[in-house]
């Protein structure tokens, strides 16, 4: 794993220097958009809708569109002036039971690794959290965005899960919630309860579930590759430039040959003319 962020866990007067790692990874099969007929990759260009010119990354800023269509442009300098007190610190605010947090608020999860000189305070915080059966509520800023987070212990490692702000969780507002609820018979509840009991397990075993779609897609790709059902796109980039250069050189040679024929004929004619045709210097 590669560290993506360095900072410290701060609670009370204790500061624990740590490094942050993504705890999860996307296992989806990476597919490219290609031209179906020849397998060539589809590329997209960043261009300005006003002048139609392609825009390099160095000239791209952030913008907020107002209701009337006007755009507020925010440069990197503007963004750097925003107050982010937690830009390099995971600031612990309080400790609460994990059961008191609805999982709908969870976002992304990261592992925290202590730096060499911070192993002892790291272990102290880890063991204290385990003993208290609590998680820490903290504030942190990652990629110029401040967010809430929880610190908890997983496999003897401190783990941080970022959380959504309260106003980022949508309130369900469906029509059936405002209607009178349907009458449910006791027998129906009993049958539903029996179904739940028949499918219940004492613990959740994540390993027994697999991504059957990804497995089938990988098998299809392997079968096509083994059966030579692949498309090799024509060379692009530097090789294409070489082909264009060769064509340009051949065209240049042809033009040079055409332009040399008249001059050669003129030289032959000039050679046949008598010497009197030559200019002689004037006598003094």
Automatic annotation (TrEMBL):
InterPro entries: DNA_bd_Ku70/Ku80 (IPR006164), Prok_Ku (IPR009187), SPOC-like_C_dom_sf (IPR016194). Residues 275-284 have a biased composition (Basic residues). Gene3D superfamilies: 2.40.290.10. It holds the Pfam family Ku. Residues 252-284 are annotated as: Disordered. Keywords: DNA damage, DNA recombination, DNA repair, DNA-binding. One of its GO terms (molecular function) is double-stranded DNA binding. GO terms for biological process: DNA recombination; double-strand break repair via nonhomologous end joining. Homodimer. Interacts with LigD. NCBIfam families: Ku_bact (TIGR02772). Belongs to the prokaryotic Ku family. This is Non-homologous end joining protein Ku.
């Amino acid at each position: 794993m590669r560290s993506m962020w360095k900072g410290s866990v701060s609670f009370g007067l204790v500061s624990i220097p740590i490094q942050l790692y993504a705890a999860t990874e996307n296992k989806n099969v990476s597919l490219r958009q290609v031209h179906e007929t020849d397998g060539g990759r589809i590329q997209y260009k960043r261009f300005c809708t006003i002048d139609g010119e392609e825009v390099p990354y160095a000239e791209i800023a952030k913008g907020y569109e107002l209701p009337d269509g006007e755009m507020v442009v925010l440069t990197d300098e503007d963004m750097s002036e925003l107050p982010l007190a937690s830009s390099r610190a995971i600031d612990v605010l309080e400790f609460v039971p994990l059961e008191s947090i609805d999982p709908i608020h969870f976002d992304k999860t990261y592992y925290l690794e202590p730096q060499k000189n911070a192993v002892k305070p790291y272990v102290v915080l880890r063991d204290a959290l385990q003993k208290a059966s609590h998680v820490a509520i903290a504030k942190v800023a990652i990629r110029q965005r401040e967010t809430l987070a929880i610190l908890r212990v997983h496999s003897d490692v401190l783990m941080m899960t970022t959380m959504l702000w309260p106003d980022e969780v949508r309130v369900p507002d469906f029509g059936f919630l405002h209607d009178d609820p349907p009458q449910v018979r006791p027998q129906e509840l009993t049958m539903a309860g029996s179904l739940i009991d028949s499918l219940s397990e004492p613990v959740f075993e994540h390993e027994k579930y697999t991504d059957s779609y990804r497995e089938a897609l990988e098998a299809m790709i392997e079968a096509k590759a083994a059966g030579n059902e692949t498309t090799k796109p024509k060379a692009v980039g530097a090789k294409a430039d070489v082909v264009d250069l060769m064509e340009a050189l051949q065209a240049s040679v042809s033009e040079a040959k055409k332009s040399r024929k008249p001059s050669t004929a003129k030289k032959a004619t000039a050679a046949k003319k008598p010497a009197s045709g030559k200019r002689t210097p004037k006598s003094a």
